[in-house]
Design a protein that fits this description.
12 helices, about 230 residues, mainly alpha, elongated
Length: about 230
């Protein structure tokens, strides 16, 4: 088996498992970028998503000005292609991370690239919460935060898990794109050490590993969504 693999995927073997250009390094870099960008972009997306819902017409904190501002910010960031966003915010990235390349620097554009998508997903998910439940909570004297945490998050958690799953899968794709311009990870492995060197076996294995990450996220997300939808 080993002999067959070494013969069929010689460039994959040549890259090695460890070292700066090894497979384990690429895998951990992808996990690192996905995890932290999901945290930063996810929190930002939740804030904007909740803000859009509660300040919308008929919301529990209706405010046309705030809603307009939030809506335009999300729309503008969502309209910018990620590869262009990487270049446009390069000075900001350097100011925050001290450099424009590498996995840590990639967290800035990744977070800003994923948050508008997630914000819209959260907005849609929370908009499906039954208005009757919200009105009942208001009638019983529930505070703003009681409704946010006790109604929106509780009633919409299954749908929030579903949209979070979709967002994570999209984020994995963005890490691959960021890797193509020097951020490291499996995207960098596929492009720099596969495509650019005509090592198709490296590109293939890197792509398969990305698909494994996507499938794992999908399976776990579907399980959690199904579990909480029965609560």
């Amino acid at each position: 088996m080993n002999e067959w693999f070494n013969h069929t995927f010689p460039n994959v073997v040549y890259q090695g498992w460890t070292g700066d250009t090894g497979w384990w390094t690429a895998i951990t870099q992808t996990i690192f970028m996905t995890y932290w960008a999901a945290i930063f972009g996810g929190v930002l997306g939740l804030i904007f998503g909740f803000g859009l819902v509660v300040t919308a017409k008929g919301g529990i904190a209706q405010n046309k000005v705030i809603y307009w501002c939030l809506d335009k910010i999300v729309s503008i960031f969502r309209a910018v292609p990620f590869i262009i966003l990487l270049a446009v915010i390069a000075p900001f990235t350097k100011a925050v991370a001290g450099t424009q390349i590498g996995t840590t620097a990639a967290l800035v554009p990744l977070s800003l690239g994923v948050f508008p998508f997630y914000a819209r997903q959260v907005q849609v998910a929370l908009s499906e919460v039954d208005d009757g439940i919200v009105e009942a909570a208001q009638a019983s004297g529930a505070t703003f935060w009681d409704i946010v945490f006790g109604v929106y998050l509780l009633e919409g958690r299954a749908e929030l898990i579903r949209v979070s799953t979709v967002t994570l899968i999209s984020l994995i794709g963005l890490t691959a794109m960021a890797g193509a311009i020097g951020a490291g990870g499996l995207g960098n492995m596929a492009i720099a050490y596969g495509y650019n060197r005509f090592a198709n076996d490296v590109t293939l294995i890197a792509t398969l590993l990305v698909l494994v990450f996507v499938l794992l996220v999908q399976v776990v997300g579907d399980f959690l969504a199904k579990h909480y939808s029965h609560k």
